[in-house]
Recover the amino acids of this structure.
């Protein structure tokens, strides 16, 4: 059975201006994103308009992007929008859907849990190392990264328990996670 070009995009969600999935836990990531936009704007302005770049803006933008990546990962795990090919679940035998979905969440939770555990080591190792142009220890960045990973692991475990209670048909027709 051939799939038409229009049918191949049926599994993708439409992008809307719906803000109903934003929760209070997302506030630090949104604030950090707004700060990063300001810092990058300042960096662009000073470099290309004033022709005299401010040194700390590059490092601040880099750390913001790194931290935002891990906080955003936690948000994606909570919403069930982390890497997952939903179309696969629609074409699997019903008996395989639930175990595969649970395995997916177990791997996700384990991965982020392992990163959080390693993050604790990095916090300790970098507690006395200062950032190059900013007056903060590098451990601050690793603390935020570790928090993001721990949240993602926690959301993965919550998703795992929710998947255990759902029917294979429900899993196949909806997003896997979604706390």
């Amino acid at each position: 059975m051939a799939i038409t070009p229009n049918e191949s995009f049926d599994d993708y969600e439409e992008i809307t201006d719906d803000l109903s999935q934003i929760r209070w836990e997302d506030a630090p990531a949104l604030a950090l994103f707004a700060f990063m936009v300001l810092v990058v704007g300042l960096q662009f302005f000073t470099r290309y308009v004033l022709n005299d770049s401010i040194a700390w803006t590059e490092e601040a933008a880099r750390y913001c992007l790194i931290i935002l990546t891990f906080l955003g990962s936690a948000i994606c795990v909570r919403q069930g929008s982390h890497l997952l090919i939903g179309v696969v679940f629609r074409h699997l035998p019903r008996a395989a859907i639930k175990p595969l979905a649970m395995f997916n969440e177990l791997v996700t939770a384990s991965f982020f849990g392992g990163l959080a555990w390693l993050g604790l080591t990095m916090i300790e190792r970098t507690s006395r190392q200062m950032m190059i142009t900013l007056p903060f220890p590098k451990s601050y960045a690793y603390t935020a990264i570790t928090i993001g990973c721990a949240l993602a692991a926690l959301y993965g475990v919550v998703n795992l328990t929710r998947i255990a209670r759902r029917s294979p048909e429900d899993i196949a027709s909806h997003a896997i996670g979604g706390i």
